[in-house]
Specification:
The protein is an alpha+beta fold. Helix content is about 55%, strand content about 15%. A three-stranded antiparallel sheet has the order 1-3-2. The chain has a three-stranded antiparallel sheet with strand order 4-6-5, with helices on both faces. The chain is rod-shaped, with a radius of gyration of 33 Å. The relative contact order is 0.08.
Length: about 250
């Protein structure tokens, strides 16, 4: 059974606070270096379960023994200063390990949820309505809306408003590569690009999103025709710089 890490942290802190005032005192002058188990549960019973309390005790390294027929929790018999350092170190180590464990778990969940989101986007040719994506993430994988939205953000998908509501659109590398290849020879009418993209199953939203992601892909209207061109490979006549005097002389 898993427990909320914060409850374990709080219980460790409470047990530590019970023993801490007595750690610096010599054992023979301070009987409270050990406490009856019943007293511990009396103090902590309303805060945490027995299982959590025993986990916290183990984390701090506190030992159990019987005195006069009763179980007690006792600090080690080492020097008081060493006891305090050891307890403090074990407390920090335990909390640190728990935090690291949580971080690894979160990273693992994030990787799995992003992979799931990418699969959904690919299945829908990189354009899916937000409602569909959320339903598929929750229905088949049990992810919350918050996790799904985080996975969408990490995957690089964008939110674009459509006539039928919000869409999650991925400017996929596959589409970017195709645009670059298609524009390598020169300007291409935008309407042609849209038709060719639709044949491949890509929506106009995917096309536009991929163009923005690429950068360097410009558009221009010429003779009432809309063109896209790649500035890295082609400059339309209207945007060519004026020739220098040397070029004119040549």
């Amino acid at each position: 059974m898993s427990h909320k890490p914060q409850v374990l942290h709080d219980t460790i802190d409470r047990i530590y606070s019970i023993f801490e005032p007595h750690i610096s005192k010599p054992k023979k002058d301070d009987p409270v270096r050990w406490l009856p188990t019943s007293k511990i549960f009396e103090v902590l019973g309303g805060v945490a379960s027995h299982e959590i309390i025993y986990k916290a005790k183990k984390a701090l390294g506190i030992k159990s023994t019987r005195i006069a027929g009763k179980w007690v929790w006792m600090l080690p018999t080492k020097a008081p200063a060493h006891d305090m350092q050891r307890l403090h170190k074990q407390r920090l180590d335990t909390i640190g390990k728990q935090i690291e464990k949580e971080r690894v778990a979160r990273n693992k969940q994030a990787r799995v949820s992003v992979a799931c989101m990418m699969a959904i986007l690919q299945q829908h040719q990189f354009d899916v309505t937000a409602n569909e994506a959320l339903e598929e993430m929750r229905g088949s994988n049990g992810y919350s809306h918050r996790t799904a939205r985080l996975a969408k953000q990490i995957s690089g998908a964008e939110s674009i408003k459509g006539k039928d509501g919000w869409h999650w659109v991925l400017p996929a590398q596959e589409v970017q590569d195709w645009i670059e290849h298609r524009l390598r020879a020169g300007a291409v009418p935008y309407s042609d690009l849209v038709k060719e993209a639709q044949v491949k199953g890509w929506s106009e939203r995917v096309l536009r999103s991929s163009r923005v992601k690429l950068g360097g892909i410009k558009s221009e209207w010429r003779a009432k025709q809309h063109y896209w061109y790649d500035m890295n490979h082609y400059t339309p006549d209207s945007l060519k710089p004026e020739p220098t005097s040397e070029e004119v002389a040549q």
